[in-house]
Amino acid sequence: MVDRVLATPAAEALIGKLRAVHGDLMFHQSGGCCDGSAPMCYPLGEFKVGQQDVFLGRIAGCPVFIGAAQFEYWSHTQLIIDAVPGRGAGFSLEAPEGMRFLTRSRVFTDDEAEELSAAGPPPRGDAV
């Protein structure tokens, strides 16, 4: 099965560091406004996932969600969560670490898009 979301080794290392401090984690791909368009990291359950949130998959064991409207824009791409030096949004757990999560992407190949289409839409809400 094609993954809708992946993490780089740098992101996996930062996730491990954050998990050691905060316990289980989750991500929500922000759609803009005050957070910018960034993957936001929270302690698991701290961000209320709604029925319009789409489950993309897991990175380093952490569930990753995106709002339905944003999913429509990104549905043709694989999201790749990376970690780079710098200060990100103030709401995400990595902000004090001098690192920030960053979303990179690549367009699915025709074969990958066909496989995802055949699998049907991804689940929504927190019933994952």
From TrEMBL:
InterPro entries: DUF779 (IPR008497)
UniProt cross-references to Pfam families, sorted A to Z: DUF779
Protein name: DUF779 domain-containing protein
Protein's organism: Aerophototrophica crusticola
